[in-house]
Each structure stands twice: as C-alpha cells, then as structure tokens.
Amino acid sequence: MFTGIIEELGTIQKIQSQGSTMVLTIQGKKVLDDLKLGDSIAVNGVCLTVTEYNHTSFLVDLMPETFHSTSLSGLQQGSQVNLERAMSSNGRFGGHFVSGHVDAVGQIVKRELKENAIYFDITFPREFNHLILYKGSIALDGTSLTIFGINNDQVTVSIIPHTTKESVLGKKKIGDKVNIEFDMIGKYLYSFLDKNRRQKQDGSISTDFLKENGFIAD
Questions:
Q1: Fewer beta carbons below 10 Å: N end or C end of the chain?
Q2: Quick check: 187 pLDDT over 90?
Q3: CA gap 88, 96 in Å, rounded
Q4: CA–CA dist 14, 18 (Å, integer)
Q5: Nearest alpha-carbon partner for 84 in 144, 5, 22
Q6: 65 & 126 share domain
Q7: Any idea what the CATH number is for the domain that residue 158 is in?
Q8: DSSP string of 159-210, one letter each residue
Q9: Which is it for strands 177-182 and 104-114: parallel, antiparallel or unpaired?
C-alpha cells in the first residue's frame, strides 16, 4: 500500500532485457535507508519487489504483464523515476490509497503553465470513464493528484512547484506516457455495486456472491 507522495527521484542505472522481461537497477538514496529483500517499492506508480540491493541502488524484475501494461518498458538508462516505499503503519497518510497496480497508460496532450502551477490534460481509455470523479483522486506515475477537469476521455490535473521539482511529471512533455491508477475505493465500490446489480437481475443472491463480498466465510 502506498500514499502517492513521492519520496525521491531515482535514476535508472542499468536495464537488462530479454523478450518481455526486464531487470532494472535503480539508483536511490532515501528509499535505501531501511530497505530489505522482498520489500515493495513503487516505481513510477508500479509496485515492484526488491530482489537485490546495496548502499547506492536496488534491483527489481518486470514480468511480461508489467512490461505490456505499464510505461516502464519505455525507460532508458539515465531515465528518472518516481520512488515511494510501501506505507509504514505509523506514518502519516498524506495522499490517498494507492495500490501500485496500474489500470491504464495515458498520454499527455496538453501542458500549460498558469501562474505557479502546471496544468496537464491527459487521455485515458474510455472504458474507465465510470471511475473518473470530479475533485476525485487519481495517481499519475504514482503521484497522488486531484481531478479538476473531465472532458470525455481526458482529465485535467495540476501540479505545484514542489511537485514539479520532486517528481517525473514535472519533467514530462506533450506526447509522453503516464501510468494511471484510478481511485481504489471507487473501484471497489463500483465492483461491488455492479455485482449486486447483476445478482438482482436474476432475482437471487448466491452463496458465492456472499462469500466474495465477505458476508460469510468459506
């Protein structure tokens, strides 16, 4: 579980590719403080598992599903990436619930400087339209942001100077891709209501439905 508050910018030191798999060596500092093998780190919003580490960098594996469904396959040596460690139980919760499971890849179609903020218009696949909420939360490359504009298959977000400096989003331009994770609570709520609607259509509530939604134990 993550919060969408980026801890630092890491740098891709090395990429080992074979087919649709990759091993990334990522240079970092802050995230290495209490790192252990098997820990989860969000890399541009993608939850990955640490397989090796030393005092300056760590390694993570990308499996084919991650390669094809996120923007990480487009990384190059020297690319900067957002890094966030999994949330600690005694930490402050500054953003929103972020799982690190990317729903879609979007594209920046507009970038505009307005006083102290940068406004972005970002496209998303239309099949996720039901998960977009005005003034709702969205994670872009792992950064927790608020939606304040919706236009068909586009959302508008903005970032302040601190986010511009401390995240990869501030360095991206028109045409660049971003990993999108829609609000977790909204996804669970929609899924539950959709299952409930389908159950009502056939006039019954099954034992499987009750088990799936935690009403009865296996």
A1: C
A2: no
A3: 14
A4: 13
A5: 5
A6: no
A7: 2.40.30.20
A8: E-HHHHHHSGGGG--TT-EEEEEE-HHHHHHHHHHHHHHHHHHTT---HHHH
A9: antiparallel
Yes or no: say if 33 and 89 are a contact pair by the CB < 8 Å rule.
Answer: no
Cβ count within 10 A of residue 143 = 26
Q: E strands of 44-100, at which residues? A: 46-53, 57-62, 80-85
**pTM score of the predicted model:** 0.87
pLDDT band (50, 70, 90) for residue 199: low
pLDDT in tens, 111-163: 999 999 999 999 999 999 999 999 999 999 999 999 999 999 999 999 999 99
3-state secondary structure of 25: strand
CB 159 within 8 A of CB 169: yes
Per-residue tokens: 142: 């792992």
Terminal-to-terminal C-alpha distance of the chain:
26
Asked if the structure places residue 37 within a domain, the reply is yes
In the chain, the number of structural domains is 2
Q: Are 41 and 33 in contact (CB under 8 A)?
A: no
**Would you state the structure tokens that stand for residue 153, as one six-digit string?**
């298959």
Residues whose CB falls within 8 Å of the CB of residue 93, separated by 6 or more in sequence, listed in order: 3, 87
Q: How confident is the model at residue 178 (pLDDT cuts 50, 70, 90)?
A: very high
Q: Give yes or no for a contact between 31 and 87, defined as CB atoms under 8 angstroms apart.
A: no
What range does the domain containing 121 cover? 104-186
Residues 125 and 66 in one domain: no
The last residue of one of the domains, among 85, 116, 133, is: 85
